[in-house]
Each structure stands twice: as structure tokens, then as C-alpha cells.
Amino acid sequence: MTKFQPVTHVIFDLDGLLLNTEPLYQQTFHELVSKYGKEYTEELRLKVLGTRQQDAVRIIVDALQLPITYEEFSFKSKDLLHKAFSGNVGLMPGAEKLVRHLYSKKIPLAVATSSGKENVLLKTQAHRELFGCFSHIVMGSSDPGVKNGKPHPDIFLIAASRFADSPNVTKCLVLEDSPNGVVAAKAAGMQVVMVPDPQVSQERRKPATLVLNSLEEFKPEDFGLPPF
């Protein structure tokens, strides 16, 4: 039974929603800022969650008043992140089952990630076949079409426009984990299912159409999609 407005297309976030990369980002940024006697706090981590690489760099350097330029921090973090992503980055619970199910039912799928192309290729290298289920991936940190990162709606509007049939935004459902991503999806005029980081406050979960603990709880039929 459809509980929400029916949709025909689905757009997934990547980090923290499909891939379990957030611990890798947290470890990397903690390691980097600790060299300057600073702490990568939970509050700061949540501010960075879901943002583009260049935006995350500015937020961290400014918030901690680090004695290095944005470019220096970006260079140092890039090297550490590449090492972290070179291993087998795991999938989040329920991610593979949901993607394969929707793909098998011929539901058009896309990814809208704040990451850049280089990092996306590294992070997804162990799951290339699975990511072949997506018609396209919009990469906010390297796509010239994405003028403003999340929480601005640009990335989701672009993701919708690149589907072969250019659906109305109201027919696109977004799956997200970050508050910045949820705000961006809502600003784009789309419904959004949030699978939040446990530390995200109840207040920052409110804008979501639906909040779940895991993708394993997602029921496609709630949005008019083919059930499992």
C-alpha cells in the first residue's frame, strides 16, 4: 500500500548510505587535525557530513583555525583518504539488496554524491558490478554543473535531469543519511528517506519525509515502487 506520493525514479547518496565510508573520513580528519593540537569533534563531523570535499576543507580549517591553507589541508587529506579508500570499502546494511531489487524491476537509479570522481572510483572499486546498476553518478566535487554543494539542491536537480526521460522532480525519491543532503533534496522538491547517523539530533531529522534506522527497513511499496 502506498503511504507516500508515488515515485518512478530513485536517487541514492553514496557515503554513509550505500558505502560505509564515514568511519574512514572521521579517522582521517582526526589524524590530520590532531597534528596541530586540535580535535575533530562530533559537532564538527556532523557539520561536514554530506558536504563537497572543497566545502568540508573550508569548514574544518576555519572552525579549528588551523595554521595551514585550504590547499594544504586538501592535499594532506587527499593522500590519507586515498590510502583509506584503497582497501575494500564495505557496503551499508540493506544497500545491495535494495539496489539490485529496484534495478531488476527496471526502476531508473542514480547516485548523487558530494565526492569527486577520483575518490568515487577508489571507493567503489570493489563493487563495480553493483554500481553498474545506476544509469549515472553525479559527483559534486568534480562536476562543473554542480555550482553549489549540499545543502543546496543543485546536485539532485542535475541527477534528475540526467535520467533519459527527464522526470518531474516530484517523481524522484532521494535516499540520504546526512542532514545537509536531506535539506538539499527537499529544496529540490523531492521526497527524501533519511537513514541518519546515530548522532544526528531529532531536530535535524524532522525535514525528512521518512526516517529509518537502516535501508533494510525500506519498503518500496510505501512509495509506489515494486515490493520485494
Largest sheet, order of strands side by side?
A: 3-2-1-4-5-6
Report the major sheet.
6 strands, parallel
Give the topology string: H per helix, E per strand: EHHHHHEHHEHEHEHE
Residues in helices, as a percent range: 25-40%
CATH homologous superfamily label of the largest domain: HAD superfamily/HAD-like
Content of β-strand? 5-15%
Count of separate DSSP helical elements: 10
> What characteristic shape results from the CA principal axes?
globular
Cα gyration radius (Å): 17 Å
What is the highest CATH level, the class of the largest domain? Alpha Beta
> Could you tell me the number of beta strands?
6
Average pLDDT across residues? Answer: 94
Low-confidence blocks of residues: none
Oligomer: single chain
* CATH topology label of the largest domain: Rossmann fold
How many structurally independent domains?
A: 2
Supply the helix-strand structural class.
alpha/beta
Q: Architecture of the largest domain, CATH level 2? A: 3-Layer(aba) Sandwich
Cofactor: Mg(2+)
Enzyme class: hydrolase
Organism: Clastoptera arizonana
Family: Belongs to the HAD-like hydrolase superfamily. CbbY/CbbZ/Gph/YieH family.
